[in-house]
Structure formats: structure tokens, C-alpha cells
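3.2 Worked example (two chains)
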Amino acid sequence: MGGPLTGVTVVTLEQAVSAPMCTRTLGDLGARVIKVENPAGGDFARHYDDVVGGLAAHFVWANRGKESVALNLKSEAGLAILHRLLDRADVLVSNLAPGTTARLGLSPADLEVRHPALIPVEIDGYGPGGPLSHKRAYDMLVQAESGACSVTGRPGAPAKPGPPVADVCTGLYAALSVLALLYGKGRGGPPSSVAVSMFDTMAELMGYPLTYTLHSGIEQQPLGMGSPAVAPYGAYPTGDGQTVVLGTTNDAEWQRLARELIGRPDLADDERFRTNAGRVEHRAPLDEAIGAWCGRHDLAYVQARADAAGIGNARYNTAKDVLAHEQLTARDRWRKIGTPSGPVPALLPPPVIAGYDPPMGAVPSLGEHTDAVLAELGFGARDIAALREQGAVR
């Protein structure tokens, strides 16, 4: 079965993580993704580190299945080649520095005139029209600016959430927007463009704390592995040196945790803990009681009892633990993908579409597909050699 986006061509001018995650998602769904890179080094994420056989972990993660075409867009010939690509493309995704697409004549308004059927997607830091619109934006900077770091970590010790959630979620919102616009176009709707900013994305992800503070005037403090919104909900050391995470989300679950899991009907009957609001206010004695019970038992026993009582639970894992996680192994979630330094393991994308196997294509070397793509555009071998001599392509 072909992918849902088979036949869709995406051209991308991308760096780092947000746009690459957008286009990798579209590629996972069957789109052809042509990654246009600067001949002088390409996507700078290629050079973050060299841990994957000389390749960067970020780049390998976010760029499988793409074709790399190295074009010098500062040259007239390179920019002309890009426009020939766009003549055949359905989508252009970009996340270049503020103002770059406009300087190249690739703003949505420019493209509407020259490539009216194209869907332009611009990913940036702060969105146009504001006092921060000119600023460069990276994941940690936007997480700090949006308040995400203030609700992560501990009071007085804020932290950036470990995964690059601003980058990834912005990329996913952009991919979702592309799907919506392709659907509308397929139904005869007018062509359109979309802009997605990292700051707007993080403001959306901050929806709960922003809403809470807006209506209460209170800025909830971060609780490390806990949640300021719900109690009990946290991490507790077990007797065998592991850590279990237990969570309740409603009053019935709390009653089961108190009575069936830790054997404390006195806590279940305590009026202070009858509602979630009360449990949040009196969190400390609950954590103390749950922690004491968990500390007397090993992890396997705690989790078995929690499962029997219908209480959500998990083991605190590190990255090494997840690499060997039985859930991934049992469900055959690992595949091998090609890279310039040989095959490496990679996880399948999250969506499981019946009858469709994601392509899991190779990670490209810089300019690996330049000649092949130029040949598709009608350039002969001598033409390509001349372009390379001019420095227009690599």
C-alpha cells in the first residue's frame, strides 16, 4: 500500500529540528522530500556532534528518507534551479533566519505570484508583527521565553524540558497544517499558505498553567516528577533501589490507591483528602505515606499491586533503559535505516496505519541527490558540470 501522501512533493529549506521534523513526518506518510542545502556545510545540525559513525544524532533522527540537493541560493543559477523544483512541488517548507525568504524572493506573497499552486509553510521563532519577530529562536530560548522552564524542575531551580518540545511540536503543528491545506486543495479550495511560530506553539502547550494563573492569580510551582494540578502523582523510591511513578487523576482512583494499594483506609476517609483540591493542598503527608509504603517493597511488587488496583504506574527509566525496552522490542518498533556511515537502528514513526509500512529511507549525505534531481529537471551531464564549476551546485 502506498502512503497517504504518495505523489506529494515537498521541497524544504530547513535547519536544525523544527522544519526537519515537519518534513520527516510528511515523508513518513509517503511524501517525497527534497532537502535543499547550502553547499558550504549544509544543514548546521549535520555538525552538532559525530556520535553516529561520524554523523550527528540530531541530523540522523530528523532527516531519514530525504533527498539532499546542494544549491547555492546566493547565485542566480542556484536560485533558478530552486524555482524549477518549485514548479513541480506541492509544498515548500522553510525555517530560515528571519527575513531570509523575503530577501530570496520566496515570501508567501512572492510564491503566490510565481508558483500559485504551491503551499508555502514558514516556521519561525516568534511570528511576524511583534517586538521579538526579528530575533533568532532556538528550542531552549523559546521554552524560556514562553514560561515552560518556569513550570519545569523545582522551585528556585527551573529547567528546560529534556526533549526539544518547542522544535518538535512546532514541526508537528506545521505538518498538521500541511495536511489540512492539501485536503482543502484537493476539494477545490483556494491555495493558501501557513506560518507556525515556536513561541505560539509553546504558548499553546502552556495552556493549563496560563489558564490557571489567569483565573487564580497564582503561579503554580514546579514539582520535579510531580504535577501541581493533581495529587497524589509522583515518583517514589522502592525497596530494591528502583523508582516507581504512581498517578491518580480522580477521586475514585485515589480511594483505590489508599484502600487497595497502600492499605490506608484512614487516609481514604480523611476529609482533607476527599477532593483533588484538598489533596493538592495537603500533598506532603500523602507523599510521605506513599513513599514509606513503596520503600518497603520492590518495584515488581508495587507495580503488580498497582495494576491489580487499577492505579496508573510506570518505572522511571533512563535512555539506556528505553533502548532495551521490552515494549518496543515486543511490538517490533525498531528498523534499520541507511546512513553514509552504514545502517543504524531507528524507531518507526508513531502512527500505525493499517496496511502501510513507512518507507524508513536513508539519511542523505550532503548533495547526494543533486545530480539525479537536476537530471529530472532536464539538465545534462555537461550542464551539471558547468553549474558545479560555477559554484551553483555541489
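3.2.1 Second chain
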Amino acid sequence: MDEETKITLRLPADLHRWLTAQAKSARRSLNSEIVYRLEVERAAAMAEGESP
């Protein structure tokens, strides 16, 4: 990742709690967990031939 962009993200409270628990379980920060999940989804979409 060469460049980073800061964003403000609003999440439903239950999704935030779930993501926080997942991050803790994987020993990642919440930010890293979100980035990880987005990268996995992007790789899957690209493998299925979806546009980037």
C-alpha cells in the first residue's frame, strides 16, 4: 500500500461490536480488520471477473 487516505466511517453499533470482536480474535486493530476484509472481498471479486 503506497498511499493512504483517511475516511470517516459510520457503522451500525452491532456491526462495530462484531468487527471489534473479530479484530481482537485475529489480533488486529479495528482498522486492519476492516482493510483485511475489504482486500479479501476485492480479491474474490477480481477472481470472479468483476470490474475493479
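3.3 Remarks
The chain has a mean pLDDT of 93.
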